[in-house]
Write a structure and sequence with these properties.
Blueprint: E1 6-9, H1 15-19, E2 25-27, E3 33-36, E4 63-69, E5 86-88, E6 94-97, E7 101-102, H2 118-124, E8 129-130, E9 136-138, E10 145-146, H3 153-168, E11 175-176, E12 189-190, E13 200-201, E14 207-213, E15 219-221, E16 225-226, E17 228-239, E18 247-256, E19 266-268, E20 276-280
Parallel strand pairs: 2-19, 3-14, 4-6
Antiparallel strand pairs: 1-20, 2-9, 3-6, 4-18, 5-15, 7-8, 10-16, 11-12, 12-13, 14-17, 17-18
Helix pairs in contact: 2-3
Length: 281
């Protein structure tokens, strides 16, 4: 007995330029850290063209050494992350927390080290978050995510650190094999714990997807709504143990979406930022 099927992989980056249109994407299991569309390794220039969805060249395998919250300094830890009414302009390498609400089945997708807050669990757990439009999607001109204006600077720092350290099992995290010639060859990951400790594995919880938001203009509060224009897939190499929160992320892929989407969106799941769907069998 034999069986066959045909699938397609869809990367929206640059598709509008190539075809005149693109299909928007909705990703599952992404982290509620809304990253500024400013590359700290390239003078703060955009990762993605916010209109066309075209991704800057040469981003793969770059390391963002200090990905930090855009609200850590001044006013003390109990001060709000963002002031309402007010506005904020994110710098390169900064992010803001997104509003998320965990669904009832989220405990089945969470590790034993899970925290209690929705923000922390959304970092630690799998596909369970609900956002402004019930999903993290990109494509079009509508605002599709909201900043968590109720969080304090201490909330973002402490919950973010706990969630990220739990996610990657920071006492024994997975690592990228130094012999990997990525992106010329596929990335190779060495397990830091578990039954395959010390051996090569094909996937890792340290691989995470993050939304990239349009930061060409200051974000105003209220309403604190932002537009997701793409997604960054990265390997979390380290999380700071104390003091200000900072994350080191190696870029594996960036997918961009322009403002002229087609019709039905494509869903992507697991750790991949590239949707793959069955088209015939």
């Amino acid at each position: 007995m034999t069986a066959s099927a045909k699938a397609e992989a869809y990367n929206p980056a640059n598709s509008q330029t190539a075809t005149g249109n693109f299909i928007p994407i909705t990703l599952k299991d992404i982290k509620p850290l809304l990253i500024a569309n400013k590359d700290p390794n390239n003078g703060g220039n955009p990762f993605i063209d916010a209109t066309t969805g075209v991704v800057a060249t040469g981003e793969t395998n770059k390391v963002i050494p200090l990905l930090t919250p855009g609200c850590q300094t001044g006013g003390g830890g109990n001060a709000p992350c963002v002031v309402v009414p007010g506005s904020v302009t994110l710098a390169a390498g900064q992010f803001l927390p997104a509003i998320v609400t965990m669904t009832a089945n989220s405990p089945n997708l969470c590790p034993s080290c899970q925290g209690s807050s929705d923000f922390e669990q959304s970092i630690e757990c799998g596909e369970s978050q609900v956002t402004k439009d019930n999903s993290f999607s990109c494509g079009g001109t509508a605002m599709n995510a909201s900043i968590a204006t109720g969080m304090t600077k201490k909330d973002v720092r402490n919950q973010g650190r706990a969630g990220l350290q739990c996610l990657i099992d920071e006492k024994a995290p997975d690592t990228i094999d130094p012999a990997t010639n990525f992106p010329t060859t596929p990335i190779q990951i060495i397990a830091g714990s578990g039954p395959f400790k010390g051996n090569l594995i094909s996937t890792s919880r340290s691989i995470a997807n993050f939304p990239i938001i349009d930061t060409s203009l200051a974000i105003t509060f209220p309403p604190g709504d932002v537009r997701i224009i793409g997604f960054l897939q990265g390997f979390i190499e380290s999380v700071s143990n104390g003091g200000p929160l900072s994350i080191s992320v190696r870029i594996l892929n960036i997918a961009g979406c322009g403002n002229n989407p087609g019709s039905t969106s494509v869903q992507a799941g697991g750790t991949s930022a590239i949707p793959v769907r069955l088209i015939s069998q």
